[in-house]
């Protein structure tokens, strides 16, 4: 006889079995085909948000990256006297775009504004190849455009539009290479192979990190040698030739632009200061960055790639791009000192170096988000996010310095979680709370995805609002201080046009700002204090005793970052003194 208890157990077991079957059974895929006007509107919204982010930027704040990128274009244009910069060089892809602008004007601020506009344009243009990747992942034609546009709203994509850097161009080239690979796979003609090789080879031209993209594409060409030798040979030869030409152009430019360039030698230098424990902790940190910056969709992208690796060569290409990008990140990141003024927090979850791969994962995952209805997959996404967050808390967070600083452009996808006030107070970030928020956002996106297109709508609203708010309340107020100081630090108006300024090489990349502000006046690099000939105007620290001992006076309007213009005795000093523009050297403290 069946007892009530036995009956209850049987009923509970049947329910559990039913739940398990429902969760493990994949339902029919959803066909999401938004109207064409929605696709057009999404692109326009993306363009507007990127333009809004870039709008307040009036001048560079990163001496190596931004000014170096602009200097490449100046050398290519050969517009009068070239700059003399300190630091390592940058690949000249953006410089090629800026060369025609330098040929038309010597005003660095005009060129800077044009460069920002080009950055926004490349960010918006990348929607096209990313939509092709989304279609490969199963999205409809109009849905793919919406997906790619929504991905471009994420802070990881909008923050770079604040600056003149190569991030947007690298993502455009990377996405285009994958889109053309899809085209080659579907139509393996020699023309398609040549186009693929051209774009893949141009990845290092866009950015040095593009070398990993070119390498992954090169390995993919080797695979083609066994399938269709002519396609693999054409693509491989063209890609290799373009990459080699890009490197030669880079070396030619840096020889004319920089006092010394150690970029190539420094590529693997970060690994020298790190232990295997550091590398594993950083891998956990970069993985957390991916799931936090790209909630739900990055994990979904990984799962879809894993499923397609058995039969789809494109999945192998994207996996190669991602793997090599992460390897490069781990080898280049130096261990930050645990204390002192240069303590870095962001090196432990540095997402910038692998962002071109994470964007691909996000697009692929978003395409699955709007299409696939499978409870087990949804649960796996949340569990992966939670597991990665826990590993990050256990392995990475204990090794990170308390009070270490971060720069938004290095971790653009998660910088909104971080607080400068916490750094100033010497306190630790609330990492458990941040990781909890990471899991919660992923959970909300997954839940919303079961209601038609609500998942992608939630991401669009979340990322769009976050990008605008983060830029208006955090990034712009902080950046504007340095940008305005740069504008006020412009002292060229007080110096005759034919005066050459000698910049003290001791103070490294800080002098790059003065090179920018003084354009078209030429700055020459000199060694102050070695008794060598120098111009009447010397740029060095305001506390340097050498100029003061020689009778030089300061032009205070040029003070920036502890540096200032020293005017040595002569006619120029006399005229500026009579105008009341100079001050005596500051008296040393004590």
TrEMBL record:
It comes from the Bacteria. The keyword Hydrolase does not apply. Signal peptide: none annotated. The keyword Transmembrane applies. The chain crosses the membrane at residues 36-63, 83-102, 109-130, 136-156, 168-186, 206-226, 233-253, 286-306, 313-333, 353-370, 377-397, 431-451. Keywords: Membrane, Transmembrane, Transmembrane helix. This is Uncharacterized protein. It comes from Demequina activiva.
